[in-house]
Amino acid sequence: MKYTDSHEWIEQSEHVATVGVTEFAQKELGDIVYVELPKVGKTLRAGEAAAVLESTKAAADVYAPASGTILEVNPALAQTPELVNQSPEAQGWLFKIKLSNPLELDKLLDLNAYRNKVTH
Amino acid sequence: MPNLSKKTALYDRHSALGAKLVEFAGWMMPLQYRGIIPEHQAVRQRAGIFDVSHMGRINVEGTDAEKALDFLSTNKIAGKQGNSATYTVWCHPEGGAVDDVIIYKKDATHFFLIVNASNRQKDLDHLLANTKKFNIAVQDRYATDGILAVQGPQAVALAAPILPQVQEVPSMHFVETVYEGDSIILSGTGYTGAGGFEIYGPNAAIVKLWDRLTNAGIPPVGLGARDTLRLEMGYALYGHELSDAIAPVESVSAWTVKLNKPEFLGRSALQSLNQSPLKRSQHALVMVDKGIPREGYEVFQNGQKIGAITSGTQSPTLNQGIGIVLSKKPLQPEDIVEVQIRDHAAKAKVTTLPFIGAKK
Q1: For A70, what's the count of Cα atoms within 13 Å in the CB-facing half-sphere?
Q2: Which member of B290, B314, B342 has the closest CB to residue A56?
Q3: Hey, what domains does chain A have and what are their CATH numbers?
């Protein structure tokens, strides 16, 4: 698993990667009450706004950690957006993306680097 | 960078409870302790306690106190009962809102007000600048006093063993009492529509009462839930539904404006605005499509831009997006409008306030 400065995680399996937000991010956001997900088939560049997490208080953008095309979005989040709070790094995943340039992941943070970032 | 934000007397309690602290109007205040939704539901279903010591209290006394406050207020203050509380807006001569405040009348010559945190100094200046011809004495209690709001259908019952007098405070009235040597005021007011009361008093008493009321099983609630609770009732928040650029007759607080009063500051401006085609109005919106309206989102009807959202959230009670729109065009209940949420237009329906039924 790799991480971004903006608190997304991405897990690659061959040319497909799953994306979500980190435990740190869900804590900062508070109770998620609505998730706006990208349309399947949408093409995104790395760093582009891909989804929106809305808490009672505010709306927060989620950025694509890498470029590619959306293959699938988490269907459970329409009815149970709170999965993002309960299980941000497993059942609360947001979307799967077909990577157009898997080498982009090399530029992202590994777990230690990300942990360092959020604890300092 | 040093943090220059002010702290209430309860700041250490909030920190110890693990509250998420945020800057609000120059104060470090608890946004939430356990989470906005459980705190909101605690107040709707049972009870919760808020530290709102960032708000200010000003005493106004003297032979002209009633006349002076009536002159500043859109609502009628003259002739109110003793020990009553009245919600009102204060206007600039041009009609924009200076603040919305609650005016408490003890008797014809003794009043006090509770004002918004963001407007403490502005309200004092406005009060002094516009009442020079009246014989009054103005004294703020900003440095010495705090405020607690104990809200919810069971707030009074849970607090009664500690403050038995709360059982004798009717809605929009107050009593003065003494708590362990300190003079305090218990008031049947609040900002949640859930029932309950507020306490005004010196900081030492406020800290003691916070400890005892929380120990009695009344959970602390932060400003996040305070905002969702007030929005479900459609209560104005200064800086959103009211501002220097929004007149009370255009707002959800239009009902406070009593144009049949012979005179008050801003009266002629509000009277002209009422006749003007440029007068705007605020309406309650509930989302039909998915999405949550947020402050600043544009609102359209039949492709025409009619205004923007002044406050919006996901209602924890309705589990639906709700908001208030400031519209150039008058709207009717059941009208359909579109709220521009990022790259899509989401349908919303005009409804009446409050969004949920009030309990009291």
Answers
A1: 19
A2: B314
A3: 2-119 (2.40.50.100)
